[in-house]
Design brief:
Elements lengths: L31 E4 L8 E7 L2 E10 L6 H13 L7 E7 L2 E7 L4 E2 L8 H15 L13 H13 L17 H11 L6 E4 L8 E4 L2 E5 L6 E4 H15 L5 H8 L5 H11 L3
Antiparallel strand pairs: 1-2, 2-3, 3-5, 4-5, 6-8, 7-10, 8-9
Helix pairs in contact: 2-6, 3-4, 4-7, 5-7
């Protein structure tokens, strides 16, 4: 939840960025490209629209040690093979040390932007979607986001200066990344209740259509992790968007009495991403 858009390549007047893959030119001719500003991603995200043609999305990310887009493509393919609702990859390309991903749009609206739905319905859809995702076989999932791996990556991101201290949650503003990393190590829980977790399960990354769950987006952090990884971020998002009174119904619907210390820990861990 603590990432920002790389706004490179913003098109003028709805045209495709000059850097866009030439192999896509014919297929995407006539589409208007609009840079998305909702959500926070190290990739630039464009919404492509054209009259009487399906809406599409393009993600593009510069190469680097912390790039996630190639990994997200692998995760989307893995999810699709298991029948999990998510964007379908139409094409993947590389140009000038950048990775490009062209995907279908999921119908409906994200759960943070669904004023036509009441809070109870949103909480129930989120709980049901995460519970079903968490039922996938962890032994079948090749993406390791267990604590040893994530804490190591948090340290590397901190040392690379990628942790935005001005974007910390309100209760941590004024702290340094190194102070929070020390707290992270002190708060590390013993053991993990492992599941296939989305990794950034806030309401903007869960979509619904006609009152039903329609799919997950921004799946670049999917992997085997403690269920509280998702419950912490979903709970924070529900409290922020719907109000804290909907936390208890959300956890009850999910079917777990949450470990409050683990919720705090995983929200703290998220500050590094």
């Amino acid at each position: 939840m603590h990432r920002h858009h790389d706004r490179f390549g913003q098109p003028e007047s709805g045209r495709a960025p000059l850097e866009a893959p030439l192999s896509w030119k014919a297929e995407l001719s006539g589409y208007d490209w609009t840079l998305q500003t909702i959500g926070r991603s190290e990739a630039a995200v464009f919404r492509l629209t054209a009259e009487e043609r399906p809406t599409l999305f393009v993600k593009v990310e510069a190469d680097g040690p912390f790039a996630e887009l190639t990994g997200e493509a692998a995760r989307l393919r893995w999810l699709a093979e298991r029948g999990v609702l998510c964007p379908t990859i139409l094409s993947q390309a590389r140009t000038n040390d950048r990775t490009w991903l062209l995907v279908t749009a999921i119908p409906g609206r994200d759960l943070a932007s669904s004023p036509h739905m009441d809070a109870e319905e949103i909480a129930e859809i989120a709980a049901d979607a995460l519970r079903e995702l968490h039922r996938l076989d962890v032994t079948d999932c090749p993406f390791d986001h267990t604590l040893d791996q994530r804490i190591d990556l948090a340290r590397l991101r901190m040392e690379a200066g990628l942790v935005d201290e001005e974007d910390f949650d309100a209760e941590r503003l004024g702290s340094t990344a190194r102070q929070l990393f020390h707290e992270l190590l002190e708060r590390r829980p013993s053991g993990e209740r492992l599941a296939v977790a989305h990794g950034d399960a806030c309401l903007p990354n869960l979509l619904a259509d006609a009152g039903r769950f329609a799919g997950f987006v921004d799946c670049g952090r999917l992997g085997v992790a403690d269920v509280h990884q998702d419950l912490a971020l979903a709970g924070w998002s529900i409290s922020h968007n719907l109000g804290s009174r909907w936390l208890e119904p959300f956890f009850k619907r999910y079917g777990l009495e949450p470990d409050m210390d683990r919720l705090t820990f995983y929200r703290l861990l998220d500050e590094f991403f």
